[in-house]
C-alpha cells in the first residue's frame, strides 16, 4: 500500500545519505532536536549531549488554547447545543480524514463501543480523501452519533476540544502531531499510537494511553475505560495540562533555541 511504499523509499534514501549525515552530525556546532526520538537518533549517530538542545514542537499560541478552553468549559452544554451535539460523552479526532491517520480503526472501535454504551458521540474534525468512505461506513453500521463538521479554524476548533471528554489520534505514522499539544492544552486525556512522535507527551495511566498502530481492539478498550472512569478522566486531563505547560510551550522553544545560538557563538570565539 501507499504507506509501505513510502517506508521503503525512505529506507533506501536513508541508506544512501546515512554516511554523509553522520559526518554532518559529528561536525555540527549545535544540534536542534524537537523531541526525544530525535534526540536519541542524533546521539546514536554521533551527537553529544552538550551539543544537543531540545526545541520542542509547540502550538503558536499555547496560552490561547489553554485559557479559552477553560472559559468554554464553563458553558460546555450551551456550546454543545450550538454545535448540534446532544450526547453526554464526546470522543474527538482532529486531522486529515484518511486511512494513513488510522481513522478507519477509530470508527471500528467506536462501533464496538456503541454496542455497549449509550449517549456517546464521535466527532471527526477535518477533511480528507476518505471522508465519503467513512460516512458510508457509518450509514452501513447505523452509527448515527458520528459527526463530520469539516475543517475549523482555531477559535471554532477550541470549542470542539472544550466539549470533548477524550482525544484520539490513531495515526499509523506521524513525525509529531501538533493536535496532541492542542488537545492537552485544552485538558483532554489522550489515546495515540506508538508511531506518533508526540506520544512522548503521553504518560500511560497518567494522562492517557499509547497503543500499537492499527489496533481497534485496544483502542476500544482504552476508550471504554476513560469514558466510564469519570474521576480518572478528570485527573488525566489535568495531568495533560501540567505536562504540556511544563515542557512544550513557545517560551521554552524560544529559550532553548537562544541557548543553542549562544552555545555556538561562545564556542566560536
Which features characterize this protein?
269 residues; alpha/beta; six-stranded parallel β-sheet; 8 strands; 54% helix; disordered N terminus
Beta strands, count: 8
Write down the overall mean pLDDT. Answer: 93
Please state the structural category: alpha/beta
Biggest beta-sheet profile? 6 strands, parallel
Instruction: Estimate the global geometry from the Cα principal axes.
Output: globular
Number of helices: 11
Cα(first) to Cα(last) distance is 52 Å
| Regions with little confidence, pLDDT below 50 for 5+ residues | 1-9
Percentage of residues assigned to helices: 40-55%
Please state how the strands of the largest beta sheet are arranged side by side: 5-4-3-6-7-8
Integer-rounded radius of gyration: 20 Å
The percentage of residues in β strands lies in: 5-15%
Order of helices and strands: HEHEHHEHEHEHEHEEHHH
Task: Write up this protein.
Mean pLDDT is 93; it is low at 1-9. This protein is 54% helix and 13% strand. Helix 5 packs across helix 9. Strands 5-4-3-6-7-8 form a six-stranded parallel β-sheet, with helices on both faces. A two-stranded parallel ribbon has the order 1-2. By secondary structure, it is of the alpha/beta class.
